């Protein structure tokens, strides 16, 4: 065999080996080692419940259930990795000994849990009126008809809630906040860069977003403060009497409700009273529009 033929033969062998290696590696991607598990528990309670839920990157869903128990279904996931066996063993340990603590009617899920590339999604039913504190690092938080005070927080997911009562705190770093009140006593909603949509707000409100839009409806029976860095503000105040102080850096301001007496003039700053005046509605945007009715 000539030297040139031997060279071509060696190149062909090298190419075949590279193809086989690439195929093998494609079968051994980190996702190939992803693992899952589930645990389920029912905890008995006999009075008002204080429930704390923490997860690094999982989702949290809470809804009303039986009056004498908290029911937990948790889905444990591995993010994958080259050491798949270790992740699978870790998940088995979590399923066998889940991060649940109970002291009477005080219950915590995921407290002091060290994730190590493991995420847990929680689906929980709890008695109405539960004092709920739910926190996810990057997942979504959804709550329905809780009936008690809530503190819902996520780093980069969305917060969605309905039928909220008592004290309400909703926070996300970069997601959206969407919530409907039932009989909330006061509401605080913040996001770094997402939108905020709040309905049936009939109490004091502070809503702030860094760069998203604000859309609020209800009646300002106490002061409202609405702030966005660069988005629009839209508020339906249900014809309630109010005092308005609205400011925009470069947008328009409009009040479409009746019986409005404007006390301050200017395209970018409007002060006035609707219905003879009432709780203060302060609306501030850096570069968006403000529309109220």
Give a verbal description of the structure.
The chain is elongated and about 70 Å long. The protein has 293 residues and is mostly beta strands. It is 13% helix and 50% strand.
Q: Notable features of this structure?
A:
293 residues, 2 helices, 23 strands, 13% helix, elongated
In percent terms, what proportion of residues is strand?
over 45%
What's the rounded overall pLDDT mean?
89
Q: Please trace the helix and strand order, writing H or E for each element.
A: HEEEEHEEEEEEEEEEEEEEEEEEE
Low-confidence stretches: 14-32
Main beta sheet: strand number and arrangement?
Answer: 23 strands, mixed
Count of DSSP strands? 23
Alpha-carbon Rg, integer: 27 Å
Report the structural category. mainly beta
Helical proportion, percent range = 10-25%
Number of helices: 2
Shape: elongated
Describe the protein's topology:
Blueprint (H helix, E strand, L loop, with lengths): L2 H25 L8 E9 L5 E6 L4 E5 L4 E10 L5 H13 L3 E4 L2 E4 L8 E9 L4 E6 L4 E4 L5 E5 L4 E14 L4 E15 L4 E6 L2 E6 L4 E5 L5 E5 L4 E4 L5 E7 L4 E3 L4 E5 L4 E6 L5 E6 L4 E3 L1
Parallel strand pairs: 2-6, 2-8, 3-7, 3-9, 8-10, 9-11, 10-11, 11-12, 12-13, 12-14, 13-15, 14-16, 15-17, 16-22, 17-23, 18-22, 19-23
Antiparallel strand pairs: 1-4, 4-7, 5-6, 18-21, 20-21
């Amino acid at each position: 065999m000539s030297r040139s033929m031997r060279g071509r033969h060696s190149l062909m062998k090298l190419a075949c080996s590279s193809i086989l290696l690439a195929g093998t590696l494609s079968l051994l991607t980190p996702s190939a080692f992803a693992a899952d598990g589930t645990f389920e528990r029912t905890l008995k309670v006999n009075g008002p419940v204080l429930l704390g839920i923490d997860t690094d990157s999982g989702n949290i869903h809470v809804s009303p259930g039986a009056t004498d128990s908290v029911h937990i279904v948790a889905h444990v996931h591995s993010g994958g990795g080259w050491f798949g066996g270790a992740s699978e063993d870790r998940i088995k340990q979590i399923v066998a000994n889940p991060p649940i603590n109970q002291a009477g009617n005080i219950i915590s899920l995921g407290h002091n849990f060290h994730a190590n590339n493991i995420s847990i999604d929680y689906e929980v039913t709890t008695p109405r009126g539960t004092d709920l504190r739910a926190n996810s690092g990057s997942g979504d938080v959804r709550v329905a008809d809780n009936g008690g005070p809530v503190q819902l927080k996520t780093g980069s997911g969305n917060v969605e809630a309905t039928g909220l009562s008592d004290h309400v705190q909703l926070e996300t770093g970069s997601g959206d906040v969407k919530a409907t009140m039932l009989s909330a006593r006061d509401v605080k909603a913040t996001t770094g860069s997402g939108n905020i949509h709040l309905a049936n707000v009939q109490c004091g409100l502070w809503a702030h977003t860094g760069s998203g839009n604000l859309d609020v409806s209800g009646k300002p029976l106490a002061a409202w403060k609405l702030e966005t860095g660069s988005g629009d503000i839209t508020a339906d105040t249900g014809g309630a009497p109010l005092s308005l102080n609205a400011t925009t850096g470069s947008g328009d301001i409009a009040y479409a409700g009746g019986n409005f007496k404007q006390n301050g003039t200017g395209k970018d700053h409007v002060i006035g009273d609707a219905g003879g005046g009432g709780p203060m509605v302060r609306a501030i945007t850096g570069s968006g529009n403000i529309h109220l009715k």
